Protein: Transposase
Amino acid sequence: MWRTSRGRQMQTEKYRGYTLWGHSILQQEDILQPERFAGSGTVMRDNKVVDASGVLGAFDSDDEAEFTGLSWCRAWVDSHG
Structure:
């Protein structure tokens, strides 16, 4: 897992010759509201972006958001790669 500043996190994995990234970005408008995380995915090959999902939804945990992003990436590779 890669941690960046401001509540962003990423998980990466290799899959069928592609590098997949699952992203989570903290979505919290007010400190009195519970934390939510936007999830997305990025598919790369040879250090170039092949496709990116956009926001796939808001999730209760950063792990769930990242997992959803990676799942989207694997499905993309299975249907395009």
About this structure: Residues 38 and 57 are 6 Å apart (CA to CA). The first helix runs from residue 62 to 80. The beta strands are 2-3, 8-15, 18-27, 36-45, 48-52, 57-59.
